[in-house]
Amino acid sequence: MARQAWSEEEEDTLLTNRTSLVDLRVWRTDNGGFHPSYLGVLKHEMQVLFPQACINEIHIEGRIKKWKSDYHKLDAMLRRPEFGWNRNENKLLVENEVWNAFVQESTLKFVFNFV
User: Fold this and answer.
1) Comparison of pLDDT for 37 and 15, the residue scoring more
2) How far is it between the farthest Cα atoms of the chain?
3) pTM
4) 75-107 confidence digits (pLDDT tens)
5) If pLDDT is split at 50, 70 and 90, which confidence band does 109 have?
6) Residue of 34 and 73 predicted with greater confidence
7) Three state DSSP letters for the chain
8) Is 55 within 8 Å of 43 (Cβ atoms)?
9) Exposure string (b/e) for 97-108, b if CB count within 10 Å is 16 or more?
């Protein structure tokens, strides 16, 4: 039941729907998180809009985890002085040599963390 890919339209819709739930605040718990049933609401909305996609709660939860992971990676890059952000184009600014060194460093950390 694994889902291989999300279309840009599906991701945009999921993000919009999740943001709507954040704005409603009815789905928030006392500790600031979401009630567990919010995934069911998002699943229903996604199935109505994309019935052929077979999007389930586990797929939604996985996509949200990926977004969080990507955000933390980007945040870590932007905390380094050699990285910048172009607000007009929503793009990362970095010299090729710096990027290549960063990728090499990240790859080595990944490899040695799993050896």
Assistant:
1) 15
2) 48
3) 0.76
4) 988 999 999 999 999 999 999 999 998 888 877
5) low
6) 73
7) CCCCCCCHHHHHHHHHHHHHHHHHCCCECCCCCECCCHHHHHHHHHHHHCHHHCCCHHHHHHHHHHHHHHHHHHHHHHCCCCCEEECCCCEEECCHHHHHHHHHHHHHHHHHHCC
8) yes
9) eeeeebeeeeee
